[in-house]
Amino acid sequence: MIRNIINLTKIFLITAFNRGGSRKRKNAVSKYIFFGLLFAYLIGVCSYGSYALLNNFIALGQEDAFIAILLMAIITLVMFTTIISCMNVLYFSDDNRFILPLPLKPLEVLSGKLNTLLVYVYMEELMVAIGPLCIYGYMTGKSFLFYQLGLLVLLFIPIVPLLFAALIVMIVMAMTKGIRNKSLVQVITMVISIVFSLLISMATSQANSTEDVMALMEKANGLTEIYKKTFITMPMAIDAVTKQSVLSLLLLIIISIAAYVLVCLFGQKLYYRGMLGSLYSSSGVSDKKIDEKNAYNSKGLAYSYVRKEMMVYLRRPTFFVQLVLPCLILPAFMMIVMYISISSSVPGGLGPALSTLYQLEEFEAVIYAVVLLVIMFISLYCFISMVAISKDGHDAYAMKYLPISFYKQLIYKMIPDIGMCFFSYLGVIITGLILFRLPVIYALYSLPVALLYSILHGFLILSDVRRPKLDWTNELQIVKKNLRMVFGMVFSLLNMGLVAALAFVTELNMPTITLVLSLIYLLLDVMLYRYIKNKDLKLADGFE
Prior knowledge:
Layout: H1 2-17, H2 25-59, H3 64-90, H4 96-99, H5 106-128, H6 130-139, H7 144-156, H8 159-175, H9 182-204, H10 210-218, H11 224-227, H12 234-242, H13 246-280, H14 301-315, H15 317-343, H16 350-358, H17 364-378, H18 406-435, H19 440-458, H20 476-479, H21 485-505, H22 510-534, H23 536-541
């Protein structure tokens, strides 16, 4: 059985990361260099931010709270990203229909799928957790044992939250097996799973009285006691890292392995029930008759083209779940979780503390930079422009023959991406105004930056113009196996670095940061617009 699980895990990983087609050695080397630089950049950004944050915790005598926040951030990230990727890996993967007839036990298939999800999580940890952990060890003078225990904690801490998220998805998918509309099931499952995940985060974040928080703040590293109550494995993980407790590490390992075994044993029937429903339930798509009276659209060509593009993303469940829904839900989800995590550790309540903080002029640029960084971080999950042409498959060739300028078609295809990016901005700002009592002045200053940034993000469609991925048989190949999505990640991270440099290195004030960023983004928007307009025929001729 173990050999089958290992072999299935290898097959699932090969299927997940296979981009199709042979690559030249030069391109392969360039790809590895590119990803190496990207990883180095991510680790550098996380390390720099950790250094600045840890300095403040050390000054307060609460340096261990940094580890608690890091572990809580990993748990939250794991639960959310697992919910997004879980349905694809467990239910809507191309290999399911080939594996089902084979003489494999449901336990083996489910274990292989969960192992694949764990590999995704470990790649995320490699980017966001290794650097902060090493910075903490260096600045606090920890021994070599700390790094060994820390790496083992990072290896086991994601297991239980991943199983929580996967179990939620399996339960919902098993319940929706009888629904005929397979397309609707994907959307319902994603929404319900995210709501359940949010409720779990709220339930595990227990409120503390002001007196308790003040008492903990007066104790050395007392703030970590609050975070120990947020998740079942947090006490063991925190003690294993901060106190270098081997016993706590052993308890974490035992709980993680036991949870893994129990979910595989009791979840295999749930998983197969949901997988059968996802494979063989009716699509629920009906043949809609054309209303001849309303067939003619008098609102213009641009409106019709953009509306057609929007309908593709909204009506196709795979595109809606993978490309639209994260932009709709992630801002509120992220802000609510952030609010719950922070409010439980602030003496006297978060409201009075924030009111005092907003009145301090020296923190104006820092707060404004945080708002912009959150907006740009959210855009990491907006991939519409990078697949705007590829999503059409072979039908995209018609772009070259339509009586519409090619560059105009590119602009029309950019608009959904621009809209999603800007909607994410509105989600961040609205939840910030409601939960964090963010002054309206920050919303007003961030508005032009967010709008111009969203337009610039739309121009990432250029990454999909030269060699779009048109030869596909499953929509998941577009949204999950498209290397061009990395360009969106790099774009967002570079802009986050620009904002951090303006706010923390040059120490500019809020109006100056707004002016500089607005001018940069406006100039880039105009340059890229003129580029696609002047290169209209060349872009169309090179379109393959």
